[in-house]
Amino acid sequence: MKRREEFNRNLCLSLLVFFVVMVLSMTSCVDDIDSQSSEDPFGAGIIGIESNPDNLFGNANGTSEIEVNTEVFPDGSSVEFEITGSSTGISSSAKVHGLPTFLRGCLIESDSTLSNGGRAFATYLAGINIAPGALLASENPPVETVNVAVSITPPNGDRESDFVSVVLNPVGIIPPEDTEIETRPAGDPLSTFITLEFITVGIPPGTIVNFSLSRPDLGFLNPTSAPVVGSEEMGSVTTQYTTFNNTGGTQVIIASLVLPNPFDFYPSRCPDVPELDRRVEEQVVITQTVPEPTPAP
Questions:
Q1: Could you tell me if 147 and 158 are in contact, meaning their C-beta atoms sit under 8 angstroms apart?
Q2: What is the C-alpha separation between 17 and 257, in angstroms, rounded?
Q3: Are 32-169 and 172-289 in the same CATH fold?
Q4: What radius of gyration, in Å, describes the C-alpha atoms of the chain?
Q5: Does residue 107 contact residue 83 with C-beta atoms inside 8 Å?
Q6: 71 closest CA partner among 46, 88, 49, 92
Q7: Long-range contacts formed by 276-280: CB under 8 A, 24+ apart
Q8: DSSP H helices in 28-167
Q9: Percentage, residues of the chain above pLDDT 70
Q10: Torsional class of 24: left (φ above 0), alpha (ψ -120 to 50), beta (otherwise)
Q11: Residues 201, 132: contact at Cβ < 8 Å?
Q12: Could you name the CATH architecture of 172-289?
């Protein structure tokens, strides 16, 4: 009889310990605001965070509204928004290298307390994600993600945190293919020319693109600058290269633009990004040949 009572006590104690462990595991919250995943659905669900839109181009131009919506914490609880990390690829597990801190974008507006039934908002300004033209035209362009975290501290309670990711699609210029061109003979009233169309990806229409060439002695460009036309998703900008007659050599034509510096618009909230890290540049090579001389009659 005593053995049965002792067995029952041990069984009850074991069940109690198991129940306590299960409750604690279910009610634990996300501690790492930059964690890539959470195995705890309760902790991850206390704070509801959404980004609208959740996809932007990495051109330091677009914005996303970060919304916190939770009924667990009372109005007046302090809220802190923070950009906490970046990773390469859409999958959160593919954290290869990510963007440097100064290229992840910035929060230009954010609430400091919950209001209107546990709500808070922040505005995220897109970071900079520039990719070479060859990668832009590939099947797997280099997509980056940026994590925007929120931490809530109620007046009498523990701090809780979670995050949402915003996808930064790559931007850049896809140049035309390298080509060969034959000039006209000396003294010909006409000249050979070629129209060069550069495709833009993630560049807002109206952005000015500048053109330059490596050999002014071989020909000239018109225009030397032009605005992007089309859409932000895919636009274009065009120039015309005209050769000088009876000249040969290798001509390199460069199209370049500089993305805006977030610091110029929000100096108190955004980092100062060097121009080199905001420059988008691609080139096309033209091999220019001299025509064969006309044989004597």
A1: no
A2: 64
A3: yes
A4: 29
A5: yes
A6: 46
A7: 277/102, 277/103, 277/128, 278/60, 278/128, 278/130, 279/130, 280/130, 280/171, 280/172, 280/173, 280/203, 280/256
A8: 41-46, 133-136
A9: 80
A10: alpha
A11: no
A12: Sandwich (2.60)
Q: Which two tokens stand for residue 141?
A: 């362009």
Q: Per DSSP, which regions of the chain are E strands?
A: 48-52, 55-57, 63-69, 78-88, 106-110, 119-125, 144-153, 160-169, 172-174, 179-182, 193-201, 208-213, 219-222, 225-227, 229-230, 235-243, 249-258, 279-289
32-169 to CATH, choices 3.30.360.10, 2.60.40.10, 3.40.190.10, 3.40.50.150: 2.60.40.10
What is the per-residue pLDDT across 104-146, written as a single tens digit (0 to 9) for each?
999 999 999 999 999 999 999 999 999 999 999 988 899 999 9
- 225: Cβ contacts below 8 Å, ≥ 6 apart: 208, 209, 210, 211
Would you place residue 223 in the very low, low, confident or very high pLDDT band (cuts 50, 70, 90)? very high
State whether residue 222 is helix, strand or coil: strand
Q: Which tokens in the block code for residue 111?
A: 């609430």
Joined together, the tokens standing for residue 206 give 């109206």
| Cβ atoms of 207 and 228 closer than 8 Å | yes
The token duo for 38 is: 């959470």
Cβ-in-10-Å burial (0-12, 13-18, 19+) of 57 comes to: buried
Segment 159-171 shows an average pLDDT of 93
Residue with tokens 């009572």, as numbered in its chain? 5
Judge contact between 242 and 268, C-beta under 8 A: no
Q: CA-to-CA distance for 130 and 136, rounded, in angstroms?
A: 9
Domain range annotation of the chain:
32-169, 172-289
β partners of residue 213: 253
Q: Which residues contact 176 (CB under 8 A, 6 or more apart)?
A: 196, 197, 198, 284
3-state helix, strand, coil in the chain (%, to 5): 15, 40, 40
